[in-house]
Each structure stands twice: as structure tokens, then as C-alpha cells.
Amino acid sequence: MVVNYTQAIRGQFFDITHVGASAENLAASARHIADGLLFLNEGIIAALMPWEEGRHLLRNEKDYLDYRGRLILPGFVDCHIHYPQAEMVGAYGEQLLDWLQTYTFPVESQYVSRDYAARMSDFFLSQLLSNGTTSALVFGTVHPQSVDALFNAAEQIGMRMIAGKVMMDRNAPDYLTETPEESYRQTRELILRWHKRGRLNYALTPRFAPTSTPALLAIVQKLREEFPDIWVHTHLSENSDEVEWVKALWPEHDSYLDVYHHYRLTGKRSVFAHGVHLQECEWDCLHRTGSSLAFCPTSNLFLGSGLFNLKRCQQQGVRMGIGTDIGAGTTF
Fold first, then answer.
1. How many CA atoms lie within 13 A of 14 on its CB side?
2. What angle do the packed helices 144-157 and 114-130 form, to 10 degrees?
3. Residue 91 banded pLDDT, cuts 50, 70, 90
4. Domains in the chain, start-ordered, CATH in brackets?
5. Cα torsion at 205, 151, 269, 17 (round to 10°)?
6. Angle between the 144-157 and 180-194 helix axes, to the nearest 10 degrees?
């Protein structure tokens, strides 16, 4: 056996070789190599094996970086995070809806500045990497330049990033709202510029149903039909007051999720953050459409939103990942 490599690393390795169907059988897919050798070829993993199997493949006996005494893991994936909120971690004292008005919207207004967005993008990515996160599904702000800055910074260092410009046209300050037509034009331009460019992908990002008119969600649906391999990323049933608000704003729909489903925004590339207060019909819809939930434990507790039903999620067979939800989440 010959391995073409540009770098080799010796250390202790742990990873999951196959995605388990449930937490109970996940352990069977775990791989631990107490003393292993990882071969990289121009930054791409070429091979991983125990030291005794791989040592003879080295060009010489010292041709490796020695990280023995450390545990080496695959990069983490953050399934829900707001990069503009990285500077407001720990802003406390409110539940979700008041928290948005008091802290979030004023902070996000600063991203109208390209220079500010570029500076904070660098800070955000450095925080992700310093905590072992190499891929993320990210909210920008309503400003297209916020997404340009993030994608540009991620592209320069080769990070895997799925992100999108926030889309919202009501129930937010005037300085952060847009018309559906503006949202369509700006979002479409971003998709054409960034989607599937290297390791970057675009996500349609309506903030949530309360800040979306029917006209805006129709625009989101139009864009998804125009770009069928696009992602969708939004919020769902985070807070009980939010759920009641959706009922008042969308009385013709059976549930919060039904608002999104009506506009064909569910599916295998759709990720809904939180899902704390779900009805039976919503669990069924998530499973049936192959949609995913982002479980955000620290932010759910920080804002007093409630406890996610992890057991039900697993029993229902709904796909789930974990998100930090910075800045309501308290740590990267």
C-alpha cells in the first residue's frame, strides 16, 4: 500500500464512521484509535490508521507532526447560529420577543456597514475555529453586504459555510425591513454569486413567520422553486408567546409549521431552529417531509423558551442537529 501525502499527524483519534439511526446504536459506529496516524494530501484526508499499520508508509520515521497526548476529532458542525449576534452573547433579562427588540435588532443594524461586517466576519470565524467548529449554518442580517462579508472571509480560509441574508418585511424596525421585491432581487443576486461556490452554499433565510407577510413567503417559495438545490433556514416554535403570535397572524393555518409547509418550505434541505413547542401534526409533517430540526439547548435555557423533546424527536425519526444559536446561546 502506498499513500500519497503532504503531511502526516500522529495522535489519538475519535470519530463516528456512520450516522446512527438512534442514540442507542450510535456507539456501534464510534471509532477510537489510541495511537493513530492521519495522512493528509494538500489538506484532504488521504488515510487514517493505527500507528503500527501506518508507520511503514512514512517517508522517514520522523516525517509526522506529533500530537500524542491530545485527542483529535472531526470538525464540529453548528446547525444554527447568528453571526451578527456574536458581540451580544450574554445580553440577558428578556424572553425571545422582547430580547429581539431590545438587543438583537439594534446590533444587527450595524451591518449596513461593509467594513463593520467584514471585521465581525473575521472575528466570528475565528471564534468558531477556536472552538473546533469548521462548518456552520448561519443567519446574516437583512443587509446583503453582511452575507458577502461572511462568505468572502470563509472562502479565504476554506471553511464550509451555508448562510443567507435575513428576509423580513414586517414586525421589525423600519431600518431592518424590506419589501418582498427588494428581498427577491437581493437574495437572488447573492444566490447567483455564492451558491455552490467552492465549499459555500446559500440558505433562504426568512427570520420567522411573524416577520414575514404572505407576499414575502411567496417570494421565498419562488426562489426555492427557481433554485431547487437551495437550503431553507428559519425559526420554528421557539417560545410559547411566539407560537400564539403566529396563530394570531396566520389564523387560516393549522399550526406554526403549516405556514412554512403551505409555501413548500419543508423538505430535506430545510432546517428549522428550536421546535420546542410542537403539535402532533408538526412532528408528523417534519418526519414525512424529511425536514430537520436544530436543537439549541443553551439558548433555549438562557431565554427560558422551554425544553426540547429530544426523546420524541428520536422516536419520530426526525433528523436533528445541534446549534449554539449565538447570541442567545451563551458559548461557541
1. 7
2. 40
3. low
4. 7-72 (2.30.40.10), 76-322 (3.20.20.140)
5. -140
6. 10
Are 96 and 235 in contact by the 8 Å Cβ rule? The answer is no
Task: Identify whether the C-beta of residue 312 lies closer than 8 Å to the C-beta of residue 286.
Answer: no
Cα(119)–Cα(83) distance, integer angstroms = 12
Provide the angle, in degrees to the nearest 10, between the axes of the packed helices 214-226 and 180-194: 20
State yes or no: pLDDT of 59 exceeds 70.
yes
SS3 assignment for 187-226: HHHHHHHHCCECCEEEEEEECCHHHCCHHHHHHHHHHHHH
In the numeric block, which cell numbers belong to residue 134?
469548521
Beta bridge partners of 197: 200
CB-based contact 170:209 (threshold 8 Å): no
Q: What CA–CA distance (Å, rounded) separates 237 from 241? A: 9
Q: Does 21 score more than 60 pLDDT?
A: no
Give the cell for residue 235: 425559526
What is residue 321's three-state secondary structure? Answer: strand
If you write DSSP's letter for every residue of 61-81 in order, what string do you get?
TT-SEEEEEEEE-PPEEEEEE
Instruction: Decide: 156 and 129 in contact? Cβ < 8 Å.
Output: no
